[in-house]
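User: Sequence for Cytochrome c oxidase assembly factor 5 below. Tokens please.
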Amino acid sequence: MPKYYEDKEEDTRACAGIREDFKACLLQHDCVIKEGKMPSECLKEGHCKALQTSFFECKRSMLDTRSRFRGRKGY
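Assistant: Structure tokens for Cytochrome c oxidase assembly factor 5:
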């Protein structure tokens, strides 16, 4: 789940919770911190794959016309 702070602005964009978790996962991963690689390089190596898939599914559900009945996927 996303981290909540009192001073933080609320992100009202679609899939904001998953986006924040995905970003935090990449930036806090050993691949970025210890090895000094770019987050995009770590993605290609397969790190944070579950969150990447969830983020993709959430963004794809925005384009799906059935989502008006089912609601967007994600949090």
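The first helix runs from residue 16 to 27.
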